[in-house]
Write a structure and sequence with these properties.
Pfam families: Thioredoxin. With 137 residues, the chain is α/β, with parallel strands linked by helices. It is built from five helices and six strands, in the order αββαβαβαββα. It has one domain: Glutaredoxin (3-Layer(aba) Sandwich). It has a six-stranded mixed beta sheet with strand order 1-2-4-3-5-6, sandwiched between helices. The longest helix has 16 residues. The chain is globular, with a radius of gyration of 14 Å.
Length: 137
């Protein structure tokens, strides 16, 4: 499944597992996390920064996850002050359990190493509103 997800993100199988989403001069990166080592690396760099992290817990088989994915990509370009991550719940069940994710999609917003908000379901307006709120703080 990881290879399929990587292809969706435009990864050709190399070490780079990110997707660049461009919108004019603004660009942001959505980081696909495919291992606990990648998660640990991203987490350690995040807790030392003041940036908002938006984690999309999804599943390939989840219809609502596929519906909101294009909107998540757009948000990554609209909010370059945030870090956007995608975690497949089937690929990383231990990380999923650690964050107590029980439904997909679940978006967890984290700042300074702590969860500041959460959106369960494919509610793009609520997610956008919460991202805007926590970027201002």
């Amino acid at each position: 499944m990881g290879n399929f997800f990587s292809r969706l993100l435009g990864n050709t199988g190399g070490a780079d597992r990110t997707e660049r989403a461009n919108n004019g001069a603004d660009s942001s990166t959505i980081v696909g996390i495919h291992s606990t080592a990648e998660w640990s690396e991203n987490w350690q760099s995040h807790i030392q920064s003041n940036k908002l992290m938006v984690i999309d817990f999804f599943a390939l088989w989840c219809g609502p996850c596929r519906v909101i994915e294009p909107e998540f990509k757009v948000m990554s370009t609209q909010f370059p002050g945030a870090v956007f991550l995608k975690i497949d719940v089937d690929e990383l069940p231990t990380v999923t359990q650690e964050w107590k994710v029980e439904a997909m999609p679940t978006f967890v917003l984290v700042k300074r190493g702590r969860e500041v908000d959460r959106v369960v379901g494919a509610n793009k307006e609520e997610l956008k509103k919460k991202i805007q709120l926590h970027l201002r703080k």
